[in-house]
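Memo to structure team: turn this sequence into structure tokens by end of day. - J.P.
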Amino acid sequence: MSRAKVTVCIPAYDKPDFLRDALTSLCDQGLARDEYVVAIADDASPTPLQPVVSPFEDRLQVVYDRSAANIGHIANFERAASLARTPYISFLSHDDLVAPGQLSRALSAMAANDGAVLAASLVLCQRYPGAIDTNLQGTFLRGSAASFVAPYLWNQTEWMALSLTTTPLSMVGSVFHAATFQKCAHWRQFPLWHDRLMLAEMGLHGGVVSLPWIGGHYRVGSWQLSGKLWTTDLKEFLGGSELILRLCEERSIAVLDYWVDQLCQAQPDERIAYLHLLNRALSNERFDDIKQRAEQRLGTRLHLGGRLDRLGVPRPLLRMLRQFDRVVIRRQK
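Reply from structure team:
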């Protein structure tokens, strides 16, 4: 019987040097070679990636499958997952890297928390190590309850409330219970934000636990499809928010009430940041409802922090102006 516990599913296309880095990062995961598998789905790369993979076969259990024709990245995610035969899976885009020991720590955290179906991770997003514009992907709404040295068990409503506004943590270094992941289907509708929906949907079916340490590195650059995120009209992002809200309403998960509580309890600077998240993610009607309820409880008007907002410019016009700035002005820069 195989001892393998988790399969790292890598949907790969081109960029052999990136794949080499990703595989190198997987050689140091605190697990014996026979405890995990690396499954690579090569989406008909212009040059086959097998020559990159072969040198790792003495250190990793590797399954390599090359498609005869390019099928696109969403279908390639599904194909990579179909190669797995383990109780847990992890997804790794081939331009990203997993931190040393992450898989072992994630599996241990799930084993220690009965009912956990996902161990999600904080990651660094950067163009290169030490880049001045490096940022952390991941937020805890109840961060004061988290620890620097112990895993964090999410309240379901907290996880879904944050999923409503952004990708809560990162897919990089995250570990999914494979059978539970098969229940998640909506992510396939979102070419740009599929990871957000993958993570959100898992939270509907079981517990989510997070490690306080950096789980990996999300490499950013002009080659990425996600580079289009901020040059589009965000319809896909808003569509994802509405879908998550509908899924929560069907299950009586009170994410909007949670956000009202969060705004009322937050410090002023955090409150502005949360308002921006909500304003970007929700329709004007939904945003106004949350904001007005929080204002009534606090007994004061809440501002997004900008001059136009303080002057009382209607929100639909504000959103139009901000969208114009994002799509036109910044593109010209």
